[in-house]
């Protein structure tokens, strides 16, 4: 009798949990606390399920189909990446909309494209279904298969919407009729870039099946705005202490445009401190080492980090009168991370220049 009572109680608890978690419903209004981007309007009649804004983040905009690269991710998915992409940094907005009943993914996509081109922008890349590469039947959920296009922009672990909520279901269900484009959108202050994926949900599972056969739009927008320069310049004395203690010093006050090796003018205060360090220690010889995060291909990052380190070396010798015999440069790409690459903050720590004692 006791065993039956325990079993019945367990069944009731599980049933209650299932009911509590079955949250996905067709909404009647925007999710609380969400708002559109000021740069891109929504399709008429759509409702906003999820919205996330970051003051400064990075996005790799696919400009070609995704291709398998022979690696697997932490969920044992085959990793896919485009051979052509555009590395972007700036204020990032991610929006998820449910579209009016009866509207197709293609119709929604064409309307977004029309907004971009009428504003003087352009479509940079477009694809649909399997031609996009990777899995065209999953969004940002699951493991043991092929990465999807959605996973280029967000992973399941980074979805902040509660499990089985409308926003979560829209990003983690089985999908079909996938369409996508990357575009450039002229705005005040420069060019914004958009990545828009539309699809139907075909398999919402037990908790998301209210969305089956409805069309959704997943919108990513990067605005043209420089990051706030809040990094404190490391003084020569502090550089010397770090080098004496550990043989190196990591510097975050050396700036480059995204995916380029040309030094930006705001790097000069840190370059001056390096020159002051070398002047105060006439016997010190150093290696300028460039580091990147893990975004983009291995060979590309190795080359980029090497070119950036060489730019710092050249600036120190040509503009800050450092003896060239006291400097060497090297690039190690992503192979020596200072933090995990699983977050924006971690990747920011990995993008750095180090001064290494070679005495």
Describe the structure.
This protein has 359 residues and is of the alpha+beta class. The chain folds into 2 domains: 24-222, no CATH class; 236-357, 2-Layer Sandwich (60s Ribosomal Protein L30, Chain: A). It is 27% helix and 30% strand. It contains 8 helices and 12 strands. It has helices spanning 2-21, 105-118, 166-172, 205-208, 236-246, 268-280, 298-318, 344-350, and strands at residues 47-62, 66-72, 78-82, 85-98, 122-128, 174-187, 190-203, 215-222, 248-251, 286-291, 327-331, 352-357. Helix 5 crosses helix 6 (268-280).
Primary descriptors:
359 residues; alpha+beta; 60s Ribosomal Protein L30, Chain: A; 2 domains; six-stranded antiparallel sheet; four-stranded mixed sheet; 8 helices; disordered N terminus
Strand portion, in percent? 25-35%
H and E string:
HEEEEHEHEEHEHEHEHEHE
Domains, number: 2
How many beta-strand runs?
12
Shape: elongated
Distance between the termini: 80 Å
Contiguous helical run count:
8
Overall pLDDT level:
90
Query: Given the helix and strand composition, which structural class is it?
Result: alpha+beta
Rg over alpha carbons: 25 Å
User: Quick one: biggest sheet?
Assistant: 6 strands, antiparallel
> What proportion of the residues is helical, as a percent range?
25-40%
* Uncertain stretches: 1-22
Widest beta sheet: strand line-up: 1-4-8-7-6-5
Brief account:
The protein is α+β, with helices and mostly antiparallel strands.
Topology:
Blueprint: H1 2-21, E1 47-62, E2 66-72, E3 78-82, E4 85-98, H2 105-118, E5 122-128, H3 166-172, E6 174-187, E7 190-203, H4 205-208, E8 215-222, H5 236-246, E9 248-251, H6 268-280, E10 286-291, H7 298-318, E11 327-331, H8 344-350, E12 352-357
Parallel strand pairs: 10-11
Antiparallel strand pairs: 1-4, 2-3, 4-8, 5-6, 6-7, 7-8, 9-12, 10-12
């Amino acid at each position: 009798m006791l065993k039956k009572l325990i079993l019945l109680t367990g069944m009731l608890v599980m049933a209650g949990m299932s009911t509590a978690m079955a949250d996905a419903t067709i909404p009647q209004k925007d999710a609380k606390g969400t708002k559109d981007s000021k740069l891109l309007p929504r399709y008429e009649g759509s409702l906003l399920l999820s919205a996330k804004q970051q003051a400064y983040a990075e996005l790799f905009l696919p400009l070609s189909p995704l291709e398998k690269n022979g690696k697997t991710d932490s969920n044992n998915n085959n990793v896919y990446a485009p051979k052509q992409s555009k590395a972007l940094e700036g204020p990032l907005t991610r929006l998820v909309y449910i579209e009016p009943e009866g509207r197709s993914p293609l119709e929604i996509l064409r309307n977004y494209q029309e907004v971009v081109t009428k504003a003087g922008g352009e479509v940079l890349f477009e694809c649909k279904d399997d031609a996009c590469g990777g899995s065209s039947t999953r969004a940002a959920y699951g493991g043991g298969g092929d990465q999807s296009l959605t996973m280029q922009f967000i992973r399941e672990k980074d979805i902040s919407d509660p499990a089985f909520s409308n926003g979560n279901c829209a990003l983690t269900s089985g999908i079909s009729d996938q369409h996508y484009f990357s575009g450039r959108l002229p705005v005040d202050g420069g060019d914004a870039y958009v990545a828009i994926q539309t699809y139907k949900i075909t398999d919402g599972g037990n908790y998301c099946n209210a969305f089956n056969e409805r069309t959704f739009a997943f919108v990513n927008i990067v605005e043209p705005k420089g990051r706030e320069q809040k990094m404190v310049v490391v003084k020569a004395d502090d550089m010397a202490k770090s080098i004496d203690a550990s043989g190196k010093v990591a510097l975050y006050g050396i700036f480059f445009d995204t995916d380029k090796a040309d030094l930006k003018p705001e790097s000069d205060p840190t370059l001056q401190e390096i020159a002051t360090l070398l002047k105060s220690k006439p016997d010190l010889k150093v290696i300028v080492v460039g580091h990147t995060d893990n975004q983009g291909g291995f060979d590309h990052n190795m080359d980029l980090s090497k070119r950036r380190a060489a730019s710092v070396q050249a600036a120190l010798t040509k503009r800050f009168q450092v003896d060239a015999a006291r400097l060497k440069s090297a690039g190690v790409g992503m192979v020596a991370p200072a933090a995990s690459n699983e977050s924006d903050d971690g990747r920011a720590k990995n993008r750095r220049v180090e001064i290494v004692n070679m005495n």
